[in-house]
Sequence to fold (561 residues):
Amino acid sequence: MNEIKSFDVERIRQDFPIFNQKIHGKRLTFLDSGASAQKPQAVLDAVQNAYAVTYANVHRGVHHLSQQSTELYENARETVCAHLNAKSIDEIIFTKNTTEAINLVAQSYGQMALKEGDEILLSYLEHHSNIVPWQLAAEKAGATVKAVPIDENGEFLMEEYLKLLSPKTKIVAITHISNAIGTIVPVKEVIEAAHNMEIPVLIDGSQAMPHMKVDVQDLDADFYVFTGHKVFAPTGIGVLYGKNEWLEKMPPYQGGGDMINRVTFEKTTYATGHSKFEAGTPPIVQAIGLGAAIEYLNGFDFDAIAAHEQSLLAYATEQISLLNSVNIIGQAKEKAAIISFTIEGVHPHDIGTIVDQAGVAVRVGHHCAQPLMDFFDVPSTARASMALYNNREDIDALVGSIKMVQEFFG
Amino acid sequence: MMESLKELYQEVILDHSRHPRNFGKPEACTHEAHGYNPLCGDTVNIYLSLSTDEVVEDLFFDGKGCAISIASASMMTEILKNKTRSETEEIFEQFRNLVTGDKDTVPETEDGERLRVLAGVKQFPMRVKCATLPWHAVHSALNDQTDTTTE
Ligand SMILES: Cc1ncc(COP(=O)(O)O)c(C=O)c1O
Fold:
């Protein structure tokens, strides 16, 4: 393992080549890491090396390159396994992204466990990718989807959750952190309450992984999913952690090569462990990139990352609150460094276009969380989401560009 | 950079977006369509009354949208009033060519001048759909489709 570096944001920025360029002649102010994070040189090097030096298909050859490629690919799985503190590598399934990981569980667990009249419990904070797969599974089984409400600050309502848990509930699927408004959900409590009623829980960790150290055994999550591209890794790779006791019972999700034990036209037996759920040639290089990204992250002290991001969040919240006619949507007590806002009289799309000209990248839209937007009665918001490489200059540029929007529409 | 922004958000456009003309749902109309941009969740409803000889007698809209889509819809309702069905389709074609930057086929007429106000959109490819959404909805209304999306 690398030695822990002290937290120097200016040093860290040098690890990310994207910051060397200008956007519309301006310094790049990248505040859209919640959508996808930038990549450090260490990840780019790992990807380059995996293609240029060690590339071959995995699990299928006895030749030198195939062995090397397989080793790097499987090392990445071990890195993820250790990082999440999973019990065994058999509990780490590589997927395309979070979306595929959730679809896998919804289809496979759904097929095994859902019957007519059953309930699936989600929350108002969910991304569409933790809603739609469950609706599809519910439709197949004749089950229904229910959602835990939130309050006007965007706080997850624990009492309502406890009321909604019932013997009909067959799975709870909740986000760890809201991508749209930053609320951190007390997932450990969520899991404990469900387990008291013997209900398994899936946690969508897409927004949590870049900001905090997650220990799946400590949380006691049954399923924990995340997507690589938000933790500084390439696109095309995601992770499903699942407890062995579930994975062993669940039927395969897709059929194909690599997921079998023996195939005949009469009967096919399936591979065990993670392989059962990994049909076809996997995203080899992307997985290697993910391993490198997690190693990069582990070069820092997670408390230092959190302290840095929380201080940026506090500064940004304070600065934006000073502006007239700007409303912050989502004011939960425990928040990740994500600020969703609206400007009175200005549509978020217009905000996005204008601040872009100042080199400021924010996401505008419904953030794939339309039920949440409906709850706050806005069609969309502008969202600034931060990562470990952001600094105060980024916040100052954002605030300056919001003022520019107001001048335009003044 | 400010130049292209100023062209996009010029006074006329901001004025139409703040005070959209022909905004609201009329008591009756002959053609109606709902336009939706799944990318941003914006919506526009078109209420159009066509006379028996296929002339747009009345055109109203409502919905939620950005300055560009509201201004585009507002200006469109003014331009299309008293146009025939085929003129409407022709002007839509001109407008689409203009904002996608494909070719400028807008004639040097008063209507043409009003269309050109939105020419600045072509420098912002991500915003072209905002400008064309209400036009697509009119096209759908005229062709008896009730729903249209920009995707
Ligand atoms: C909370 C949350 N869940 C799920 C997703 C979906 O991730 P992906 O599109 O990589 O599958 C995202 C990001 O878009 C997210 O923020």
